[in-house]
Design goal:
This protein is mainly α. The chain has eight helices and no strands.
């Protein structure tokens, strides 16, 4: 009887511990979600402030739309990463089976994001002009498009109008993917992918981007040094 009693006590303790751990995990997830919601709200507010909207109602609506999109993308990314980690930790799966499961998880995550994309842009379009929507996209992607495009123009002043248009078109395409990314690394990854495409294109056009970049970076350093000296 004593043994059964101790087993009963032990089983109860383990059940309590598991329940406690589960509650703690839920609390941690809820806290993380609340913290990210605050981060998303601040990011959205910063983007909206740059739009110079005159209507307070429009400001609030656009901010809520952007913040909600940030949270939705973040949640999809988190869910995918957690599921991917679980698959990789499953010892019963060989590499081929694990890779297939991860690919399936990625496809499902991409489908969710693709569904959000047009709905999000439509909501923004109710309150913003096309140029303002582009400003939101730039704000969500750290202004990589305008900064990178300006860099190409300064680095390669010999570019033709056709070449400029192609570079701009690919950067716009990269930004369209990047606004759907749930992390900063993934946003920059998209631009990196398209920069590679642009550099390959320019190379085929007979432009030595490596040499041009070295010259351009030297000029930038000289410009920075000159600015520092002028402040002394």
């Amino acid at each position: 009887m004593k043994i059964n009693f101790y087993k009963f006590i032990l089983a109860g303790f383990l059940a309590f511990a598991v329940a406690g751990l589960s509650a703690q995990e839920k609390k941690s997830k809820a806290q993380d979600a609340a913290e990210y919601a605050q981060v998303a709200d601040k990011r959205a507010e910063k983007i909206v402030d740059a739009l110079s909207l005159t209507s307070d109602k429009a400001k609030l609506k656009v901010k809520e739309t952007i913040a909600t999109q940030y949270v939705a993308l973040h949640n999809i990314e988190d869910e995918f990463n957690a599921a991917k980690t679980a698959v990789k930790a499953d010892a019963s799966l060989d590499k081929k089976a694990a890779d297939a499961k991860v690919a399936d998880l990625q496809a499902k995550a991409d489908a969710k994001v693709a569904k959000l994309h047009p709905v999000y842009l439509k909501k923004l379009g109710k309150h913003l002009s096309a140029d303002q929507v582009d400003q939101v996209k730039d704000g969500m992607t750290y202004n990589v498009l305008p900064i990178t495009y300006k860099g190409y123009l300064e680095m390669l002043p010999m570019l033709t109008d056709v070449q400029k248009a192609q570079i701009k078109a690919w950067l716009v395409e990269a930004r369209e993917h990047a606004i759907d990314a749930g992390s900063a690394d993934k946003k920059h990854w998209w631009f990196g992918k398209y920069k590679g495409r642009i550099n390959n294109y320019l190379s085929k056009e007979g432009i030595d981007t490596q040499s041009a970049r070295a010259i351009w970076e030297k000029k930038l350093k000289e410009r920075e040094e000159a600015a520092k000296n002028s402040q002394k």
